[in-house]
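Case study 2.
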Amino acid sequence: MPKYYLLGGENTLKRDAREINQIAFNEAGEKPNVLVFPWARASFDNTYTKKKLLSNYFRSLGAYTVNFADYSFTNQELKERISDADLIYLTGGVPSVLLERLKIQDTHVLLEKFKGIIVGRSAGALVLCKKCVVTYRRTSSVKLICGLGLVDITLKAHYKLRHSEKLKELSVSNPIFALPKGSALVFDNGKLCALGKAYLFNKGQQEVFVSCNL
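Prediction:
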């Protein structure tokens, strides 16, 4: 079973979640091999414009190799790449897009069997959870969607104070964990803990979250 780092968001150009990423990379071992899944953009093509940016960033964190999973890979090719990796990184973007692509390729089955570190940023974090709270920018509407269920929680990434009332409303029937940009939840062997600021909305109330057993 992998150890999960769910990152609420990061500006990778500014590297404003570097400390959390460094912890994850250190746990993956000395000079880890990193596999990136850049599948979360709606305008998907075979080129990911941030390859150089992420490669340089991850090498500064200690990565030995930084490879990118191509959406054209067969399931067997993905299995081999995942087997060679020490840390898997799911980028941000559109949760529904990433979710659909991971399911079509049956990648979620391979992720569940992975024994290393999985880091999900923003959309990458949301899809790993049982449910996620998605805010649509054009309409400002909020919706609960089902994720892969690898971590048995409901998550809101990019949390800001203005989201509180809606999250309180949604939490009446479903507890919700909320992460601002630059904070993370770590899930390992049934235990969930926060790195940085994290919040739990439950039964219409909000509290600071530190840790719990799931």
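Helices lie at 18-27, 51-60, 75-84, 95-104, 107-113, 123-126, 164-170.
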